[in-house]
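$ run holo --ligand "pyridoxal-5'-phosphate" --emit tokens
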Amino acid sequence: MFDIANIRSQFPILSETVYGKPLVYLDNGATTQKPQCVLDVVNDIYMHKNANIHRGVHHLSNVCTDLFEQARKTVARHINALSDAEIIFTRGTTEAINLLAFSFGETYCRPDDEIVITTMEHHANIVPWQMLCERKKMKLRVAKISDKGELDTDHLYSLLNERTRLVCVAHVSNVMGTVNPVKQIIGKAHAMGIPVLVDAAQSMPHKNIDVQDLDCDFMAFSGHKMYAPNGSGALYGKAKWLNEMVPYHGGGEMIEKVTFEKTTYNQLPFKFEAGTPDYISAIGLGRAIEFMEEIGMDNIERHEHELVKYAIERLGAIKDLRFIGEAADHSSAVSFLVGNIHPYDTGMILDKMGVAVRTGHHCAQPLMDRMGITGTVRASFAIYNTKEEIDKLVEAVERVRMMMM
Ligand code: PLP
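-- output --
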């Protein structure tokens, strides 16, 4: 049974007030709040178990190492990876994509090669590829989107050719909530021998993900957007690529043997985990995944789908409000503008009414340029949100309109 009151009671922060009003937290696309079970795991390690992993022979080090490797198994199982070794822990999506851009780029890319991205990418899935293109004298090709914020897949396919080394695409747009047909894109790219990275930062918290079914080559995601501690996340990669790729950072657990003449590297996944990883956050990520699985990914998806549908319906009835992004397949985030009111003004007034939304370009400036705007107001949902909270958002937006127009 899906019990929203029970779910909400597990998030201590949801009983906070802001300016004397109950907190309505609709900024989940930026980061989610953490349930007690995740906070407890982190606290328990700091209080009773903490020691650096992998390098110790002593008891606590072994306890933490086991918990860290169990968390890797949990992530691998959750996304149906073929093996635990295909999960590289990172601090989040940004670090995962930077790792890939460096290691994939150094291993497989040459001058005049091309990387294909889309207009709706987060800067984290643009800038590392631009940096690679500058370094290697390659070209970045960008697939167009429609006025409704849907990907022009025909245009994307027309960009694929024998020079394309990688396609990098968001599963869900962090601004518009557009769900991209990644399985179809992967199928088309693979037919031409081109691997695909899926940026799952905005899909993993909301959907059942099966990397073998999608057949993606790489996937990046952030733990803090799915109820886990900050500093957690991962890069999934098929072992056949990861085994061939050169390491990203040097030092720590990524070595096999070091001499001044030559260093050899550890096996997967350690080859890509230099230095002390944020093992406590990674363990927290494992617990957060269990928390989501206990609720059930289908229940999460169904509940959030209803919230988005309700938000679109109710916000859509507000005079002078227009949505940025009206894709048919829509997930978890809704962006809008009211008349010519600046999004910051809307956000600040909503805040005074206890409603937390995000305003601005959402780290997607090229998308803002495409839509001819400088920013949006974005409400983004999580498992603990309710229709009553959306009513409060709508009421607050109405107030903003009355005050400012
Ligand atoms: N990609 C997308 C689609 C995002 O929404 C975000 C964060 O908002 C990122 C990448 C970057 O994630 P992080 O800051 O956790 O590395």
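-- notes --
The radius of gyration is 22 Å.
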